[in-house]
Amino acid sequence: MAEIIVVGAGAIGNASAYYLAKSGAKVTVLEKDSCIGNGGSSRNGGGVRQSGRNPAELPPVMYGVRNIWPGLSDELGMDIEYCQEGNLRLGKTEEHLKILRELVRDAEAGGLAMRMVDRAEAREICPFLSDEVAGASWCPTDGHANPLLVTLAFYRAARRLGVDFVTGAEVVSLRKKRSRVVAVVTACGSVYEGDGVLVAAGYGAGKLLRTAGIDVPMAPVLMEMLVTEESPPMFFQMLGAAMSDFYGHQTKHGSFIFGGTHGFEPYTDSSRLTGTSIAASNTCRGVIGYFPVLKDLKILRTWAGVLDDCFDHIPVIDNPVEAPGLTVGCGFSGHGFGLAPVAGLLLSQLALGGSPALPLDRFKYDRFRAKARSGNT
Ligand SMILES: Cc1cc2nc3c(=O)[nH]c(=O)nc-3n(C[C@H](O)[C@H](O)[C@H](O)COP(=O)(O)OP(=O)(O)OC[C@H]3O[C@@H](n4cnc5c(N)ncnc54)[C@H](O)[C@@H]3O)c2cc1C
After folding, report:
1. Is the CB of 47 under 6 A from ligand 1?
2. Which of 106, 209, 242, 358 could form a disulfide with 214 if both were Cys (CB 3.0 to 4.6 A apart)?
3. What secondary structure letter does DSSP report for 204?
4. pLDDT tens, residue by residue, 114-124
């Protein structure tokens, strides 16, 4: 029986552990925090979105939406609140509609069924829109799920299959034996050894991978969310805007969860998880601009989380040739929740030396080989 050490108990580490154990492997998951899922995995917007993705991510995310997400609650034995009511990305101006048309064109080229809808059809799909909405892109197979429940459900299902989780275990180095990465060392000096190591540690993966000579170019980016008081059921599509000033959805119990981008994210302090004074008001302006009907809803709470933003905004899902025995899943760059189940499946297949269910050429580590830059000395 193969024995794999997984580093990181976020959605991707937990999903990997689950699929590894389902394939018969013995698995130990090491998590630096005192609880599981305290990274981006429990702090995100819950979007299970295929639309608006980098074309490289379309095959895996479409595979997940077709083959995994719809049956995930049953498979994991817990309601993860998956809701497949589509994604409307809204625009008000000709400039916005141009951005949306380009997204639709890229998605169609990748085989995703998505189209533009005019103002009237957008309002038929979601009657609460502002009169200012001029049109939208529409992907009927997109959706959302509850990130806390997904992360917890994979953890519980993995535990039922015998996976060991060790919390408070920060892995500080990867260790090789006969040139293979087969062991890890924790901050308190414990050594865990197996047949291979799978690193799914979000932004924390960068520092750890460097101990085995692997350099994934990633930056930490602080992103913020808010949740409102409960409201009667209004609409259950995933919503967004051409300029990404807001995105979100109404949850099963009635609260709205919204996030957005304000443009200053790369310049904020990602070491504090307390958020900024900029984000919530910016998101509210975005939401109210498209949904004036929500203007009196009270905000209950705001929070922040850190993205592992990769240089080219797509993840590494690979066994780097430089480090046999090592499997890497990091750099999900703000899209990792929707990808988590399929990424866990693919990473488990890589870690066990099998053929992955999908080609992974676009996610290989060797795409970062330094390029010569003319003019630089
Ligand atoms: C505010 C916000 C909104 C987002 N919205 C969406 C969305 O709507 N849709 C979407 O698809 N994605 C979204 N994302 C991105 C998504 O949350 C992440 O891509 C995904 O959760 C990454 O999962 P992960 O398991 O790789 O990382 P994480 O959840 O960060 O888990 C990594 C784990 O590894 C642990 N760890 C780190 N270093 C070590 C170490 N040395 N030793 C042991 N353990 C370690 C950490 O403590 C953590 O628990 C959002 C992210 C944020 C922050």
Report:
1. yes
2. 209
3. G
4. 999 999 999 99
